[in-house]
Amino acid sequence: MVYTKKHPALLIMGVMMLTIALLVDFSLIDGVINYLQIKKHLSEMTYLSYLFGTIALVVGLWNYLGTHKEGHLDYYLSTVAGAMFILFIAMIIRWFVAPFVAVLSKEMGPIMGAKYLHQVLGLNYIVLGILTGIIIVNFFKIPDWAKNGIRLSRLGLKTGVVLLGTLYSLAELQQLGFLSVLMVGVFVLGSVGIVLWMGTRLNIPNSMGGVLSAGMGVCGVSATVASAPVVQAKSVEIAYTIGTILLWGVGCMFLFPVIGHLLDLGYVQFGAWAGTGILNSAQVAGAALAYQPDGIETLKVAEIFNITRVLILPIIVIWLAIWYVKREENAPNVNVAQVALKKFPIFVLGFIVMFALSSTGIFAPANHYKGKYFDNENASLLTAANLSILKVEQTKVVREDYKAALTRLIENKKVMSIDDDNSLRGLVNAKILSEAANKILKSAHKAVRHTANKINKFRQFITWLFAFGLVGLGMQITFASIKQAGGEPLIIGGIVGTLKAVLSLIVVLLFVEDTI
Q1: What's the CA gap between 94 and 62, in Å, rounded?
Q2: What is d(CA 514, CA 502) in angstroms, rounded to the nearest whole number?
Q3: What are the φ and ψ backbone dihedral angles of 368, each rounded to 5 degrees?
């Protein structure tokens, strides 16, 4: 079979990408750039457009003018068109559409537009990218020339998760790791148990209950596929489970950021909630990036909770195997160990390897801490007006470590140590001081902590992997697949999913602080 479709689309996308690069490089769209306030994107707009525009142009010429024969070259190069289709959409949305929506929102006013329409509803490039993918696949259909490359979006997401491991270290996760194990353990085991109990009460087949419990309790589609062999799930039961997960997960992916902004959750709090309460890895990433589109802190926390959840998968597989064999008299013998090893997600192992390497310091520059340098040698000193505001509000602070850090800041006009910086961050999150004072503390924090250049570039690369993957994810969410979640599976999934989301949010609000 010849996979390459002779079509000029890839060639046209290459020309358009190169045109964007040239327009930016020669300052021909400065008016648009200033209006959309996208100067921070100029560097990536130039080099990404040149790089991928050239690739699209060369491969596009081969696609359109070349002679294609069945083979490996044909198969692999045929994926470029679909990959570039996703990437081009992500570029247009990130650089032009999302900033335009932001500008329009601000023009509607600081409350209705900037806060509620834009921030609370999360109309950023991640959400808009997923919505664009959903619209394309359901209303316009994926073009034939792009179909073979659309599947690469999953590779983008999984590669992003693997590379996230390089941004963690054991020192950073001492507290968060224990918290993630505790929360995830309780909610995963509890969700699996409730689904199995409800399935028995509603008299659904054991195979249906088993596969649904894994999907709703652990990690969505991956857990569904992994558990299906041990409970002898039929293809229609797998479809029902995936449909339920998809319907619930898509709703959560858009609803969680809205609720998070309404409750003013911190990045650690939202990441813990999303990583526990949302079912699928891709949906967890989508919600985290929708909540914090211009940073990676929320995504890091969410993925730690998500990875912890996936690590519990072998335990759940063994549990379901024992449960199923006991309930099914004629159940065939299942090699539990073989299934657990064969179906365990490889990308999680990649994350663990990268995390282990990162903990040795191999990826971090000297004096690196949490992905940032702490340096107060050249820090911007606070002004007399800044100091005056802080001195007036100093009496509001009661906690000793906060008070001491604030005193040293006022005396030295800059943050003096990492410990002081952490204390001042805690003071800001406690919302004891006025908005003006907190703004000064945030500026002092930014003056002494700055992301290393190579770490910053690496984070941008990871962000683009997720942007690419999530636009492609949207192209795989069809209304037909959502409709497959009907009857008892949808009822059980809705009840258990809602319980997990609500209870995990309560736990986060009560016990999770917004500092690591």
Answers
A1: 29
A2: 19
A3: -85, 140
The residue that leads in pLDDT, 358 or 269, is 269
Integer Cα distance of 314 and 319 in angstroms:
9
Q: How far is CA 163 from CA 220, 348, 355, 464, in A?
A: 21, 11, 9, 12
The span from the CA of 348 to the CA of 439, in Å, is: 39
Separation between Cα atoms, residue 236 and residue 212, nearest integer Å:
12
Residue 450 gets the label, from left (phi > 0), alpha (psi -120 to 50) or beta, of beta
| Percentage, residues of the chain above pLDDT 70 | 81
The pLDDT tens digits for 78-113 are 889 999 999 999 999 999 998 888 888 777 765 444
Paired with 372 in beta bridges are: 369, 451
Per-residue burial over 500-514, b = 16 or more CB atoms within 10 Å of its CB, e = otherwise: bbebbbebbeeebeb
At residue 38, the 3 state secondary structure works out as: coil
**347: Cβ contacts below 8 Å, ≥ 6 apart:** 158, 159, 161, 162
* Residue 389 tokens, joined: 């505001």
Residue of 471, 478, 510 lying closest to 85 (CA atoms):
471
Q: Identify the bridge partners of residue 449 per DSSP, sorted by sequence position.
A: 374
Cβ–Cβ < 8 Å for 63, 11: yes
DSSP 277-312: H--SHHHHHHHHHHHSTT-SHHHHHHHHHHHHHHHT
CB burial string 154-183: b at 16+ within 10 A, e below: bbbbbbbbbbbbbbbbeebbeebeebbbeb
Burial (CB count <10 Å: 0-12, 13-18, 19+), residue 258: middle
Beta-bridge mates of residue 369: 372
Across 343-480, the runs of DSSP E, i.e. the strands, are: 368-369, 372-374, 449-451
Are the beta carbons of 474 and 247 closer than 8 angstroms? no
Query: CA torsion sign, 179 to 185 to 188 to 194?
Result: negative
The answer, yes or no, to whether residue 120 has pLDDT greater than 50, is: no
Q: Are 300 and 165 spatial neighbours (Cβ–Cβ below 8 Å)?
A: no
pLDDT value, residue 202: 84
| pLDDT tens per residue, range 44-57 | 999 999 999 999 99
Confidence of residue 218 (pLDDT cuts 50, 70, 90): confident
Max alpha carbon distance in the chain (Å)? Answer: 81
Q: How confident is the model at residue 66 (pLDDT cuts 50, 70, 90)?
A: confident
Q: What is the pLDDT of residues 230-274, one digit of tens each?
A: 787 776 677 678 777 777 877 888 889 889 988 888 888 998 899
Q: What is the pLDDT of residue 60?
A: 92
Q: Measuring CA to CA, which residue among 426, 418, 423 is closest to residue 374? A: 418
